[in-house]
Amino acid sequence: MSRRADLPVIAATYRRIEQAAAQFPDAVAVLLRGQQITYRELNERANRLACRIRGVTPVGSMVVLFVEDNIDHLVANLAIQKSGCVRVSPEGRLPPAALSAILKQIKAGLFLTDAGRLSRTTEMAGNTPILVVADAVRSAGAPAESENLEDEYPLEDFYALGFTSGTTGMPKGVASRRIRSAINSRSVVADLGLTSEDRLLIFGSLNFGASNLVIQAALTTGATIHLLDLGQETPESVFQWMRDQRVSVLSTVSSFFRTLFSPPPAQPLPDLRLVRLGSEPVLAADFDLFLRGFARGSKLVHGYGSTETAYLSRGILDHTTCIEGALVPLGGPPEGVEISIVDESLRPLPDGEVGEILARVQYAPTGYWNVPEQSADKFRQDPDDPTWVFLRTGDLGMVGMDGNLYHLGRRDSMVKIRGFRVELAEVENRLRQHPGVRMAAVHAHTQQGVASLAAYIVPQGDPPPSAADLRRGLAASLPDFMIPAAFVFMESLPLLPNGKLNPNALPAPGQVRPPSAEPIGDAERKIARLFAEVLAAEVGREDHFFDLGGDSLRALRLVARVNEVFGSLLTAAAIYAHPTVRALAEYLEAGQPILSGLVALNPYGERAPLICVPGQNGNAMHFRQLVSELGHEYPVYSFQHPRYDPRSPRYDTVEALAAHYVDLMQAAVPSGPFLLVGASVGGAIVFEMAQQLAVAGRLPLGVVMIDSHFSAPGFSIAAQTAQRLKAVREKEKSEPLLMRMRKEVYRLRRRLAKALAKAAPMTAEEQALRRVKQETERMAERYRPQTYQGRVVYLTCREDRRQAQMPEPGFDELWRRVVAGGFEVIDIPGGHLDSLEMPNVRTVARRLRQVMAGQVSPSAVGEDPPRQ
After folding, report:
1. What is the DSSP string of 518-560?
2. Residue 460: is it exposed, middle or buried by C-beta count within 10 angstroms (0-12/13-18/19+)?
3. What is d(CA 131, CA 48) in angstroms, rounded to the nearest whole number?
4. What is the pLDDT of residues 782-831, one digit of tens each?
5. 353-363 burial code (b ≥16 CB/10 A, e <16)
6. b/e map of 808-842 (b: 16 or more CB within 10 Å)?
7. What's the DSSP call for residue 763?
8. Alpha helices per DSSP H over 275-394
9. Using an 8 Å Cβ cutoff, are 173 and 369 in contact?
10. Rounded-to-integer distance, Cα 181 and Cα 607, Å
């Protein structure tokens, strides 16, 4: 491959290491217990080995590096770069099946190994040549072989083929270019402030991409690399080494850092100026360990990347940094990288939204090695500039309101419990803050279709904490659905060779949820049977309906069965208020007192609550999918129309019903900011609520109306419907006779079905729904809103109205006339009836989060951003 004309002028990494060897020939390049090598020796040994490699296999061949983590490994790595070949360095601790899968994907020209792995390498290599690194270096002939090779290789060519860990399937190869390696090394040197005076202690396999990146970068500066075998060390011996050798930089992964510094050293390490953590999310608990273990003036660098994407972002923190939340933020991306957060359709998401991290990287891989079908989903070359590649990382992240990138873990590790998105890192962080927990991991298990959390704990202290202790600690700061159902205590957590947690090696908890007592009494036993019928699970008297996999649809089915068995008049709101067998039985036995009309769909979260009013059917469940899409950090309350219960008073005007809702809201949310949200005719009700609250001196953050309407002189709902039907009939006159006849038959069938339905006896549920709809329609027709001084955001299904040939001006124009404090219109997808259903509800949730964050303004409204 020839050099591109637009490539920057930059030296390859191995050339910069040669320059460091010329500048600092007698400086120690690598130091182990009992071994060391200077820059001159490292460079000369690599030159001799490169000559031997070139004598066995041609430039561009794949050379398998199968050597222990020692000096020979670093010599061989540098020699392969100098030879112009492609390094393939599988981790020696991989299972045989994974190692075999990697070797089958390549055509190796040579194996490099050491004496300890020679027999295993011989089995793998077959007829492929093998060189033992130490023997090959010693057997070099002419002195000239110690000199730097003069050959130059195109910067755009590949120099290494790395493989993913393969924990979710077959390991996949990713080829790296020399130009990308050079840029990354330069960025690492700048971010860490590396100089020839630094002494770096690196934990993690040398085959691991992050370790290799830091080592290569450090060797370009003349710094000294320290390598220790954690299998032969204790935390105390590591701390002593760092003091004796005056280590200034520590580089490892978060998992190793937690193991090593829990608890931190008794005295801060005086020479350590910087800690670099990479590859995994860094938690607030990790940052707390840093603050306690390292002197003021030291820094923590949080690096982020992967096998596919290499070095993507880094955040630099010190003792003055304030961390809010469970995660440590990443800063901006390095040279040649751009980061964005996107949804499933790769559309950019606004700040505060959780989505997949999409990287745009210059001179990046364009796909997996010989796996085109998987590459197409992950990699895409930028059509505007072929030197840039879009890479789907498979990681979740968000850009916070502070402008920082946050890494939330793998996309496939995000779970939903009771419909809420749960970030496992947040639960792990809370567990690690417990004084009796040294290490913690949280994993989701599915049993009978129900997802539950299990916590894996490495305890510390005497006595160690119990599961009850940990549950009580979590309950103080987390909602109940985020508290693990099972706790498994272990001596250590299973790790992959690269130091990350190995979730596949976590033992299955013996019991995913704790036992619950047997039902007591006839009512509890009947309700328990109905729970079990709807949920297909064994149920005890204290089991929570939503913990067992219940959702809003199952709640509706349960309500129907309970009403049938008990002759009651429950709505789904009763299940939200009384979600256990015991609580629901007590409610029924108490004579079903009238429930509060304000249903807590999500009582959790620290953000300002959303107070919602449904449309004509008055059902609080209208917002059930919105709650799930918003996330548990947004409390959501929804009103259930009081007339679902015929014992409730009747409210004949919007003003009267709004006054009733205001009283209920003031009792449930007595203070603090809130947002009013109304769907369809519910928008008129929240508009009137806002008027009354403003008079009482409690102005909401805003009023959001979702495709809401009201009647105005010459512009009633009935008049609009009549005009639309007239337009449809006029259009039909030009259609063929057969098509008109078919439509007329369809209308006759509908009228007949309605007539038969009216003749059949109505159930109590049908009677309640009809009563609510009729009363809501009558009050809406009479409502005449007064001018409101506050702010209103109007979410409109404008396209739906156009397709239905609704006349203009639209309802938004009528509302604009009575709003004095700012009126903003935002188009949303879907129609009037399905705007709060999937997938349209995702856009509504996104817009509501923007409103809550104050990000919506007249200049920021309109259609979603175009797809990249």
Report:
1. PP-HHHHHHHHHHHHHHH-S---TT-BTTTTT--HHHHHHHHH
2. middle
3. 13
4. 898 999 999 899 998 876 656 555 555 567 788 888 999 889 999 888 88
5. bbbbbbbbbbb
6. eebbbebbeebbeeebbbbbbbbebeebbeeebbb
7. P
8. 284-293, 372-378
9. yes
10. 43
Q: Please compute, for residue 439, the number of CA atoms within 13 A of its CA located in the half-sphere on the CB side.
A: 21
- CA–CA distances in Å: residue 287 to residues 255, 284, 474, 778: 13, 5, 20, 59
Helix (H, G, I), strand (E, B) or coil at 188: helix
3-state secondary structure string across 218-249 = HHCCCCEEEECCHHHCCHHHHHHHHHHCCCCE
CA within 13 Å, CB half, 337: 26
Integer CA distances (angstroms), 489 to 11, 515, 540, 614, in order: 51, 19, 26, 46
3 state SS of 428? helix
Tokens at residue 236, please? 């105390």
Distance CA 794, CA 542 (A): 43
pLDDT, tens digit (0-9, with 9 covering 90-100), for 719-750: 555 555 566 666 667 777 777 777 777 778 77
Task: With beta carbons less than 8 A apart as the criterion, state whether 531 and 581 touch.
Answer: yes
Spatial separation of the C-alpha atoms in residues 705 and 209, rounded to whole Å: 51
Distance (Å, whole) CA 600 – CA 621? 11
Burial of 120 per CB tally in 10 Å (0-12, 13-18, 19+): middle
pLDDT digits (tens, 9 = 90+) for 415-428: 777 667 777 877 88
Report residue 682 as tokens: 């519910």
SS3 per residue for 241-271: HHHHCCCCEEEEEHHHHHHHCCCCCCCCCCC
H/E element holding 826?
Answer: strand 823-827
- Position of tokens 């119990």? 466
Confidence tier at 513 by pLDDT (50, 70, 90):
low
Tell me the one-letter amino acid at 825: V
Give the model's pLDDT for residue 714: 46
C-alpha span between 290 and 435 (Å, rounded): 16
Ranges of beta strands (E only) in 273-324 are 274-278, 299-306, 310-318
Helix (H, G, I), strand (E, B) or coil at 637: strand
Locate 849 and state its tokens: 């989060």
Residue 583 CB: number of other CB atoms within 10 A? 18
**For residue 602, is it left (φ>0), alpha (ψ between -120 and 50) or beta?**
beta
